[in-house]
Amino acid sequence: MPLALLALAVGAFGIGTTEFVMMGLLPDVADDLHISIPTAGHLVSAYALGVVIGAPLLAAATARLSRRTVLIALMGLFVVGNALSAFAPGYDSLLAARFLSGLPHGAFFGVGAVVATGLVAPERKARSVSLMFLGLTVANIAGVPVATLVGQHLGWRVTFLGVSVIGLAAIAFLAVLIPRSRPQAAPATGLRGELAALKSLPVWLALGTTVAGFGALFAAYSYVTPMLTDAAGYADSSVTLLLALFGVGATIGNLLGGRLADHAMRRTLFGGLTSLAAVLALFPLLMRAQWSGALAVVLLGVAAFVAGTPLNMMVMEKASSAPSLASSANQAAFNLANAGGAWIGGLALAAGFGVTSPAVAGAGLAVLGLAVAGVAYGVDARRAAAARPAPNTARERVVAVNTPRRTKAEARR
């Protein structure tokens, strides 16, 4: 694989670290700024809001520029946002800095996915995207636990300075390893023309699959700590290591999903969502013992991230005229899934259905994701059938008998 993918993975590592580390630092930030933990939790929401707003807008607004230039500029904005977080004098300024830090997140992954697929042969496109996202999953294994530990012992501000340094390293890698290219052609209508690429029904169905499928993940993952301590019987001090196991599972699933998606994209997506629904449905049983609770965390990471790469590739294919924008919009959908899944899991918990009930609610969301993916498959099949000319001769009728099989195989990819 090209070394340029390493540059993208380093950027993804920094982004993944800053996105998830705030969850572990909430008590420290709340204590230092003299605010409540629920109020500090808005800092997580501010970052997610930045992702949702910045992902499509920045990708569309920078469509005319060289993708190498865009990636470096986005990482520069990421560094500024984290540096401002480190030096924020109060809660309001930290809230604004977190929002700023989230703005480049989705656009970086969106543009990076397009760059990654352009560096390899067509049959290895999904694998190249999974290697970029490897930085994000490795961040859950090493970046987030280390950054949390640093913040707890040296102060949360040091953590964000450290993330800024990672961002500077990513800029250096991007400048050296990403090949120079000419500015990309963009529609004459500018931003409006780019956004028009999102009017396609298949694109919205793919984005809907992301929201439901990854909403299933976050419905459970947002409340995995009380599941592990109250149901599986782990001590609070063991949770950090167990969350790193989720990162291990996510890394395995990400690499597996990339490899499988290059051979059968749609079957990989259906398989991942089905596995996710099954794992979440089994959570009440698996969380009855420590060994099976740890296994459940690993399997959750594997199942969820097997579906991640085919989802991103499918959105890019459905919006082929603006792949950077479409992939960025998929990152926005991912963060909507984060917020929506956590909310639905919280409803199940607040209703008194038990500490593992968020996982059962997540299983329902995974089934919904499968249903949306099934509708998308049906839409693609009908459009492919409508695009075929009707046979007029006996010879053409013979050829047409075999055509649906090829079309279905293509649709599965």
TrEMBL record:
Which PROSITE patterns does this one have?
A: MFS
Q: Membrane spanning segments where?
A: 42-63, 70-91, 103-121, 133-154, 160-180, 201-224, 239-257, 269-287, 293-311, 332-353, 359-379
Q: Which InterPro entries does the record cross-reference, listed alphabetically?
A: MFS, MFS_dom, MFS_Efflux_Transporters, MFS_trans_sf
Mainly localized where?
membrane
**Topology of this chain in the membrane:** Multi-pass membrane protein
Where is the region Disordered? 388-413
Q: Which UniProt keywords apply?
A: Cell membrane, Membrane, Transmembrane, Transmembrane helix
User: What GO molecular function annotations does the UniProt record carry, in alphabetical order?
Assistant: transmembrane transporter activity
Which part of the chain is the Major facilitator superfamily (MFS) profile domain?
4-381
The record's listing under PANTHER family reads: CHLORAMPHENICOL EFFLUX PUMP RV0191, PURINE EFFLUX PUMP PBUE
Entry GO terms, CC: plasma membrane
Q: Where in the cell is it found?
A: Cell membrane
State the protein's name. MFS transporter
Query: Organism, per UniProt?
Result: Streptomyces aurantiogriseus
